[in-house]
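--- STAGE predict ---
source: upstream dedup step, 1 unique chain passed
mode: sequence only
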Amino acid sequence: MASNTLALSSALILARTPFFSRVRVTSVLSSIISRA
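--- STAGE serialize ---
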């Protein structure tokens, strides 16, 4: 039950996160991976 609530809350957080924030996080992760 707790895992279902955690998955639901994380899905809601992702849904509420603006698109440009996700793009920014993805680009930052990509730059870190390319640097490593």
